[in-house]
Design goal:
By secondary structure, chain A is α+β, with helices and mostly antiparallel strands. Chain A has helices at residues 8-17, 24-46, 108-111; strands at 21-22, 55-61, 64-70, 78-81, 86-91, 97-101, 121-123, 128-131, 142-144. Chain A is 26% helix and 28% strand. Chains A and B meet through β1, α2, β2 and β9 of A and β1, α1, β2, β3 and β8 of B.
Chain lengths: 145, 339
C-alpha cells in the first residue's frame, strides 16, 4: 500500500495502535530501572544479612567481664582468662569452636566437642561463653538443653 | 528521521514498575521495630539469653527489668549464697518468707505431692552426700543414703498458717529446679510490666517465649541432642506462649571412678536417676515445665508414661538406651526427631 492509497481509516488505526507498544528505548529504560532497584536493594541488605561469620567470646575474671567479637576465624588457639584460671579455645577452618583446655573440675566444656553456629558452648564454672551472634533466617530462636 | 519499532504492549511498563517498587519497598530490611534487642551473658551460675522485640528503648529497659527480677530471685532462693533467704532457712531452721520465697515454698509443697515425691526440694541432703556442693564427687555408702532418705520429704517442712516455715533438723532444701521456673516467670512478668509484649527468655537452657514476632514466623526451638555436637534432637514450633524445659544428665554431674552420676536424684532410692539422657517438656508456664520435667526424668519409665498420660504432658524422652519416644500429647508438638 502506498502513501497515495492510504485511507483516513488506516491513519486513524495507526494512531490508535502505535502508542500501545514500547520502543527499544522504553525497554532499555525499564531494564535500567530494574537493575538500579536491585542494586539499591542488595546494598541495603548487605549490612543486615547476618550470614557473615562472627564469634563472640565473653569471659568473667576478677569480677570483670571481657566481651570480644571475632569477625575472622582465629588461626591459632586462644587463651581466655576466667574465674578459675585460663581456658583454651580452638577454631577449625569451618569456623567451629571447641574448648581444648580448662581448669574447671568436670571438663564438661571440653566434652562438648566442636560447636557450630547457631549453637553456643560455655564453661560455666570458669565463666566463659562462646557464641555465634550472626543470625540466619533458618536459625532457631533458642535451644533447650 | 527513523522511527523505532514498537515491540511490547504499553502495559508491560506497568508490570516492570510494580516489580521495581516491590523490590525496593516490599522487601525492606528489618526496621528497628523488627530487629530485636538481644542480651547474652552470665547471670548467677548460668547463662541467660534474652531477646526483646519493639522500640529499642522499650526492649532495652525490659531486658534490664528481667535481669533485675532474676537477680531478686537469686537473692531469695539461692542455695549457695550465704546471705539468701533460703540459706537462712537451711541455717536457722525457721523463716518468715518474703513475697518472692513464699510462693516458691508453696509451689514446692504442691509439687512434692503431685509428683509423688519425685520433685521434692528436700533431696539436697543427697547432693551433699554425692559431693555436688563441694565439687568432690563420691559415691556415698548405703548407710549414708539410708540416713539421707530419712531426711527427705516435704513433711520435714512445716508451717504455721503458711506464715512461718520450720525445717526439721538435718534436712536441707535446694530450690534449684523450681527456682529456675520462678526465675523465668518473674523475668517474663517484669518484661510485660515494662511494656514489652514479644520476647524470648533462655535461663540456662530453660525457655519461655511469648508474643508475635514482626515477621509473623513461629517461635522455633531446637532441643539439644546430648549424643551430637552439631544436630538437634528435635524441633518445636509455636505461635503461642510456651515454656520448654529439658532435664538431662550431661551438664551437671559428679564423676566417680570414671562413671558419671547426674544431678537429678530419685528421692525414693537415694540414687542418681539414670533412666534417660534427657527429657524435654512443654507447658503453658515455666514453673509447671520445670516440675514436670524433673518428675518425668526421675520416675521409672512405666510410672513416667502413666504420669505423662494422666496430666497430658507433651514430652520427648531420650532414654539411656533405646529409641527416642514421645508422650501422646507430644506427638504433634515435636518435629524433625533424630533417632
Amino acid at each position: 500500500m502506498t502513501e497515495l492509497f492510504r485511507s483516513d481509516n488506516d491513519e486513524a488505526q495507526e494512531r490508535r495502535v502505535a502508542p500501545r507498544f514500547l520502543t527499544m528505548t522504553d525497554i532499555r529504560l525499564c531494564v535500567f530501572l530494574v537493575v538500579i532497584s536491585l542494586m539499591t536493594w542488595l546494598a541495603s541488605r548487605s549490612g543486615n544479612s547476618g550470614s557473615a561469620w562472627h564469634c563472640r567470646v565473653v569471659s568473667i575474671a576478677s569480677s570483670r567481664t571481657v566481651d570480644r567479637v571475632f569477625s575472622t576465624i582465629p588461626a591459632s588457639p586462644l587463651e581466655v582468662s576466667g574465674r578459675l584460671g585460663t581456658s583454651t579455645l580452638e577454631w577449625d577452618k569451618m569456623g567451629r569452636v571447641r574448648f581444648i583446655a580448662s581448669p574447671c573440675p568436670h571438663h564438661v566444656c571440653i566434652g562438648q566437642g566442636w560447636t557450630s553456629p547457631p549453637f553456643s558452648v560455655a564453661c560455666v564454672p570458669n565463666g566463659i561463653l562462646v557464641e555465634f551472634p550472626s543470625r540466619h533466617p533458618n536459625d532457631p530462636d533458642g535451644i533447650s538443653r | 528521521m527513523s522511527v523505532e519499532t514498537r515491540i511490547l504492549p504499553w502495559w508491560s511498563i506497568g508490570i516492570v514498575g510494580i516489580m521495581a517498587l516491590y523490590i525496593v519497598f516490599g522487601s525492606q530490611p528489618e526496621t528497628e521495630l523488627e530487629q530485636p534487642f538481644r542480651y547474652s551473658g552470665f547471670l548467677m551460675d548460668s547463662i541467660a539469653n534474652i531477646t526483646a522485640y519493639g522500640p529499642r528503648p522499650v526492649a532495652s529497659a525490659a531486658v534490664d527489668a528481667a535481669l533485675a527480677a532474676m537477680r531478686r530471685l537469686d537473692d531469695a532462693a539461692s542455695f549457695h549464697r550465704p546471705d539468701s533467704a533460703l540459706a537462712r532457712l537451711n541455717r536457722d531452721r525457721k523463716i518468715v518468707p518474703d513475697a518472692i520465697l513464699a510462693p516458691i515454698l508453696r509451689a514446692s509443697s504442691e509439687a512434692a505431692v503431685i509428683s509423688e515425691g519425685y520433685c521434692d526440694p528436700t533431696f539436697a541432703v543427697l547432693h551433699r552426700s554425692y559431693g555436688f556442693y563441694d565439687g568432690h564427687g563420691r559415691l556415698p555408702p548405703d548407710s549414708e543414703i539410708a540416713a539421707d532418705l530419712a531426711l527427705i520429704g516435704w513433711s520435714r517442712m512445716t508451717s504455721e498458717f503458711e506464715q512461718t516455715f520450720h525445717l526439721a533438723s538435718g534436712a536441707l532444701i535446694d530450690l534449684g529446679g523450681i527456682g529456675g521456673g520462678f526465675a523465668l516467670q518473674m523475668a517474663a512478668d517484669a518484661m510485660r510490666a515494662a511494656s514489652c509484649t514479644t520476647f524470648f527468655i533462655d535461663d540456662g537452657g530453660d525457655l519461655w517465649m511469648e508474643g508475635s514476632k514482626p515477621d509473623k514466623t513461629p517461635w522455633r526451638i531446637a532441643v539439644r541432642d546430648p549424643r551430637s555436637d552439631e544436630r538437634s534432637l528435635a524441633m518445636i514450633e509455636t505461635y503461642e506462649p510456651l515454656a520448654v524445659s529439658t532435664s538431662g544428665d550431661y551438664e551437671r554431674f559428679v564423676e566417680v571412678d570414671g562413671r558419671r552420676y547426674g544431678h537429678i536424684m530419685d528421692p525414693h532410692t537415694g540414687r542418681s536417676a539414670a533412666w534417660y539422657r534427657s527429657v524435654t517438656v512443654l507447658a503453658s508456664d515455666p514453673v509447671t515445665a520445670e516440675i514436670q520435667g524433673l518428675t518425668l526424668f526421675a520416675m521409672p519409665p512405666a510410672e513416667g508414661r502413666n504420669f505423662a498420660d494422666k496430666y497430658r504432658i507433651p514430652a520427648l524422652f531420650l532414654p539411656a538406651s533405646g529409641p527416642v519416644w514421645l508422650t501422646a500429647a507430644g506427638e504433634n508438638r515435636f518435629s524433625e526427631i533424630s533417632q
